[in-house]
Design goal:
about 500 residues, 19 helices, about 75% helix
C-alpha cells in the first residue's frame, strides 16, 4: 500500500504507469492478426471482394479526414480527453466486430477504427506534458516498448488459441473486446496535464508573442532567466496572471496566433533540403507500409484459404514485431555518418522492400509470402527509425511533433490516392495479387529516386574532398573559411547521429 502511495505521489511514475497500462491493453488484441479470416468466415460471412474493395478502404478515408482536426484539437484539449476518445473508438470498433453484421455495419466499424488510429498521436504526446524533461527518455522508452510487447503477446496468444485450443475467431474477438474495455477504463484514471506543446505552455495569450520577441531580441532570454519563479508569482497573485490581466487578448486571437506560428514553423522545417528529402521518403514509404499492412491478410487468405488451410497469421505478426524491434534497436548502435550515407540506405532497403513485394506477388507458396512480409516490415522499421532520429536531432520537440503530424498527413493523402485508384471498386478495383505487383512497382520507384539522390550526394562529396585536397594557398581566404565551416558542420552531424542510442519508433 505504501509503495502504491509513493508511485502515485511521484511526478512521473504514476502517469507513466497508467499510460503503459492503457497502452498494453489497447494494443493486446489477439483477433487483429486474424481479422480477414474472421470477416470472411461463418461469423460475418462477407466475401473477399467485399472486404477488399468495400470495407477496408473506409479506414483510409476516415483516418485522413480525422487526422488534421484531431492533431490540432489534441494539443488544445491537453491530450487526456483525446486518449479517452481513442479508447472509446477502440471499444466501439470491437463491439461492432463482435455483434454487428453486414457490409454497412463493417464500414461504420472502419470509421471508428479510423478515429482510433487518428487519435493515437495523443498517446505518444501525453507523456511530454506530464513529466519533466529529465524523465522523457525513460518514459518514452517504457510507453513505446509496452505497445510492441502487447502487440506480440496478442499475436502469440491468438495463434496458440487457434492452433492448439481450436478456438474460433469469434472468441478471439471477445478477448480483444475485453482488453480494449480495460484500456478505456484505464484512460479515465490518467491525470489531466496542466500544459501542452502549443496552446497551453505559459499563459493563455503570451506564449507566441514571447517566442516571437525572443527571436527578434537576442538578449530577451536574459530578462526571463527564471520562468518557473515568475509562474509561481503569477499563480500566487491572480490579478497579475495572464487570465486576469486587463490587456489580455481574446482566446480566439491567441488560437489564431498559434496557428500562424505553426504555419511559420512548418515552413522553416521544410526549407532545409536534407529534412525535405527525409520527409519525402517518410511520407511515400509510410503510405505504402500502411497499404501493405491493411491488405496483406487478404493476400494470405488468397494463397492459403482460412476455411481449408492452417492459418499462422498470429505467429508471423509476432515474429515481425520482434524483428522490427531488433532492427530499430540496432540503429542506435550503428556508427555511420547518416548525413552522407543515409539516403543510400533509403534507396537500397527500399529496393529490398520492392523485391519482397514482387516475391509476394509472384509466389503461390504461403511460406514465401510470410517470409516476404517479415523482410518488408523489418526493413521499413529499420528505415523509419533512421528517418525519425535524423529529423528529430535537427528540430525542437514542438517542431518535431508538427513535422511528424504533417508527414503522416501526406502519407495518408498518398495512401488515399493509392486506395482510390488501385483498390476501391470506384477505381480500378484490382484483384489482390495484381495489387501487390503495383505496390512492388511503387517501392521500386521510391528506391530509384533515393538511389539517384544518393549517387548525386556521394559524387558531390567526392568533388568537395578533391577540392579540399588542393593546397590551401591556392584558395582565397573566403573559400578557406567556407571549406572549414562545411567540414565542421558534417562532423557535428555525425557526432549527434552516432550518440543517439534510443531511436523513436
Amino acid at each position: 500500500m505504501d509503495c502504491w502511495k509513493e508511485v502515485k505521489s511521484s511526478s512521473w511514475s504514476y502517469p507513466t504507469l497508467m499510460l503503459c497500462t492503457y497502452g498494453f491493453f489497447s494494443a493486446m488484441r489477439p483477433a487483429e492478426s486474424f481479422l480477414t479470416p474472421y470477416l470472411t468466415g461463418p461469423d460475418k460471412n462477407l466475401t473477399i471482394e467485399e472486404v477488399t474493395n468495400h470495407v477496408f478502404p473506409v479506414w483510409t478515408y476516415s483516418y485522413l479526414v480525422l487526422l488534421v482536426p484531431v492533431f490540432l484539437i489534441t494539443d488544445y484539449m491537453r491530450y487526456k480527453p483525446i486518449i479517452i476518445l481513442q479508447g472509446a473508438g477502440s471499444l466501439i470498433t470491437w463491439l461492432m466486430l463482435v455483434f454487428a453484421q453486414g457490409v454497412l455495419a463493417m464500414q461504420l466499424m472502419e470509421v471508428f477504427y479510423g478515429m482510433f488510429t487518428a487519435t493515437e498521436i495523443a498517446y505518444y504526446a501525453y507523456i511530454y506534458s506530464t513529466v519533466s524533461a529529465d524523465h522523457y527518455q525513460k518514459a518514452t522508452s517504457y510507453c513505446r516498448s509496452i505497445t510492441l510487447v502487447a502487440s506480440a503477446v496478442g499475436a502469440v496468444l491468438g495463434q496458440l488459441l487457434v492452433s492448439l485450443a481450436g478456438l474460433s475467431y469469434f472468441y478471439l474477438s471477445t478477448i480483444s473486446l475485453a482488453s480494449v474495455s480495460l484500456a478505456f477504463f484505464t484512460s479515465l484514471l490518467l491525470p489531466m496535464p496542466q500544459k501542452s506543446m502549443f496552446f497551453h505552455r505559459k499563459g493563455l495569450s503570451d506564449t507566441v508573442s514571447e517566442r516571437a520577441d525572443r527571436e527578434r531580441t537576442p538578449n530577451a532570454s536574459s530578462t526571463n532567466k527564471h520562468p518557473g519563479h515568475q509562474e509561481d508569482k503569477d499563480s500566487a497573485n491572480p490579478s497579475t496572471s495572464p487570465e486576469y490581466h486587463p490587456n489580455t487578448a481574446k482566446p480566439q486571437n491567441h488560437v489564431l496566433k498559434v496557428l500562424v506560428q505553426l504555419f511559420k514553423d512548418m515552413k522553416e522545417c521544410y526549407s532545409t533540403k536534407r529534412l525535405l528529402y527525409w520527409s519525402l521518403w517518410w511520407a511515400l514509404a509510410t503510405a505504402g507500409f500502411y497499404q501493405i499492412l491493411n491488405y496483406v491478410q487478404v493476400l494470405w487468405d488468397h494463397r492459403a484459404p482460412s476455411q481449408s488451410s492452417a492459418v499462422y497469421n498470429g505467429a508471423v505478426e509476432a515474429i515481425a514485431t520482434f524483428l522490427s524491434s531488433a532492427t530499430s534497436m540496432a540503429v542506435g548502435y550503428m556508427r555511420i555518418n547518416w548525413n552522407l550515407s543515409g539516403e543510400l540506405a533509403l534507396g537500397i532497403f527500399s529496393a529490398v522492400n520492392a523485391g519482397a513485394l514482387f516475391l509476394m506477388h509472384l509466389t503461390a507458396n504461403i511460406w514465401a509470402c510470410y517470409a516476404g512480409y517479415l523482410v518488408f516490415k523489418a526493413c521499413y522499421m529499420f528505415l523509419i527509425t533512421i528517418a525519425t532520429f535524423q529529423i528529430a536531432v535537427n528540430l525542437s520537440m514542438e517542431r518535431y511533433a508538427l513535422m511528424f503530424g504533417f508527414n503522416t498527413f501526406l502519407a495518408l493523402a498518398i495512401q488515399t490516392i493509392l486506395t482510390l485508384v488501385v483498390v476501391d471498386s470506384r477505381g480500378l478495383g484490382l484483384d489482390i495479387v495484381t495489387q501487390f505487383l503495383v505496390y512492388g512497382c511503387y517501392f521500386a520507384v521510391i528506391a530509384g529516386i533515393f538511389l539517384m539522390r544518393s549517387i548525386y550526394i556521394l559524387g558531390s562529396t567526392k568533388c568537395r574532398r578533391e577540392k579540399q585536397s588542393f593546397p590551401k594557398e591556392h584558395l582565397t581566404l573566403k573559400e578557406q573559411g567556407s571549406e572549414e565551416f562545411s567540414y565542421n558542420q558534417q562532423c557535428n552531424v555525425a557526432v549527434i547521429a552516432s550518440t543517439l542510442t534510443t531511436p523513436d519508433i
